[in-house]
Amino acid sequence: MKALEQFDIKGRSAIVTGAASGIGLCYAEAMAEAGAGVTITDIDIDGAEREAKRLLGEGYDARAAHLDVVDREEMTKVFDEHVAHYGGLDIAFANAGIDPGAGFAAPDGGRNPEGQVDAYDVSAWDRCIAINLTGVYNTMREAARVMKAGGKPGSIIATSSNAGVVIEPIVGMPYHPAKAGVSHMVRYLAMELAEFRIRVNSIAPGPFVTNIGGGWLQDPVVREAWDSVVPLGRIAETDQMKPLALYLASDASNYVTGSQVLIDGGMALGGFK
Ligand code: NAD
């Protein structure tokens, strides 16, 4: 098979969590642009509906659903509805995540710290683990259930972070173990699901300009500070995620499972430039 043909996902379907904005939206766009049907899910149902409508208007196949990744009942319902609509599920992105805030001060003082581990509000820990770790578990669990029932190969992709590999003092402490947990959970499930031809991989982004943490990476001052510490010299726009999302979703990566792909401008090589 020719190289480009291996990226073909026409006629397949994908579900993406946290897809009303940012990296999740970019995954959804990548799937739709490559010819798959996609369910855009988010707690922000207005945003999910807006983006599904936009993609439909551009001639792609998209639909929206409300989904809080913490809510297992809603998760089951949304996955079942996706299967009823598309006749199966080929690709699932466990993407929804938050920056919980609590953490250390950045070396350059770039962000207001909420105090060290003994000082901050522990609710930041609870929220972060519930959404960024348990929410990914809930998503991968449902994806495995419906993909196994479908009996076809599948691809599950979780969004981790380079903060699961190295310490990024500017990002809250609870974010680090949550993301490291996502990457390691992916390795376990890759082993478990291999016999069903379901592949499980993670993407570990560095700084991308999105709405995360209230959009602090969009601030020109913060942006300039990050541009100067990333080895490749800049923070990234979400469009840059599309080729990697398509690679992991498609047969182009059909011998890849349990992997983590860093897409961080080199930050995890040694932290700051
Ligand atoms: P974003 O805020 O633009 O998008 C996150 C989306 O998740 C939002 O639409 C939000 O409404 C949704 N969401 C929040 N809580 C949810 C819940 N409980 N259930 C369902 N949806 C929920 O942020 P983003 O940067 O695109 O983040 C996407 C993923 O990428 C996250 O897992 C994040 O940790 C990860 N990530 C981002 C960066 C970055 O620099 N932007 C770096 C590394 C990893």
UniProtKB/TrEMBL annotation:
InterPro entries: NAD(P)-bd_dom_sf, SDR_fam
Similarity section: Belongs to the short-chain dehydrogenases/reductases (SDR) family.
Keyword Oxidoreductase: yes
Pfam families tied to this protein: adh_short_C2
Lineage: Bacteria, Pseudomonadati, Pseudomonadota, Alphaproteobacteria, Parvularculales
GO molecular function, one term: oxidoreductase activity, acting on NAD(P)H, oxygen as acceptor
Highest rank taxon of the organism: Bacteria
Keyword Oxidoreductase: yes
Species name: Hyphococcus luteus
Keywords assigned by UniProt, alphabetized: Oxidoreductase
Protein name: Short-chain dehydrogenase
